[in-house]
Predict the 3D structure of the following.
Amino acid sequence: MSFAVRFVVVLVLFLPTLSYADYLGNQKTQAFIDEMVEKHQFEKAKLQKIFKQAEKKESILKAISRPAEKRLEWSGYRKIFLKEDRITKGKAFLKKYQDVFDKAEKTYGVPAHIIAAIIGVETRYGQHKGSYRVIDALSTLAFDYPPRSKFFKSELEHVLLLANEQSFKPLELKGSYAGAMGYGQFIPSSYRHYAVDFDGDGIADILDNPVDAIGSVANYFSKHKWRTKEPVSFKVSVEGDAYRSLIHKKLKPKHTLAKIKSAGVSVPDTYELTQMAKLQVLNGANGVEYWVTLQNFYVITRYNHSHLYAMAVYQLANELLKK
């Protein structure tokens, strides 16, 4: 085999690796860079330098195609987040930052144990905030994941704006495979819209500052219409088959408690029957479980659009209240 032929063979074998080396040569990236220059007056050379170092990650594409919320039943999902270690560390986290939680609850009307549970589910109270470079995660999903490319392209725009606003270095930001960051795992748009400077030092830092993170999670819930001192969910029993017609996949409450009760569901008389609710059926470790979820449960799903996630947060929060 001549040298020329060997060179061509090697080059062909190596081309797939070269195509994944960085995103600068990607046509979609070039179009995105041009948009950022025109729309936000970014320097083209700086963006080119960033995307020259951004890498496609196959592990990210695999992870987003198999989220736990879609592949697990409640019995398996619950085991992940209701372990004794997470509960013990949550109680310690609440105790350590008790004054901050009290301030957040007073300011935003969101219970301390709900805020703590969110941070506990997301990052084990800041212990596991993600090891992916955010620029890699968002570039991969924006340019190589068609089902949600529009959403992640928007988040890529937000992270670059965020980096400018907060003087972050885009290539140094770390987070989840979906580009979420910090104690509460805010995606870039949520960081820009809901992060607050809760300790008054002039910086809204949810990446490394638990005080700002606590205030920011509370602010997020407040902005999504958390109802102070109202319940979240309660377990029920059912009689007959009429309740089946009320079961639906939408996360938002669709029926009044009165209607749910009239279908053979054991709604206690202590609840206002005119409020909107949802009948939730879960496959638990000991069989089928029936729950009624209310407006505040729906608010938790605004953080992560999954009824399993919201139930894990709610039940972890209840565990954190126990002595």
User: Anything to note?
Assistant: The radius of gyration is 23 Å. The CA atoms of residues 175 and 181 lie 5 Å apart. The longest strand covers residues 276-284.
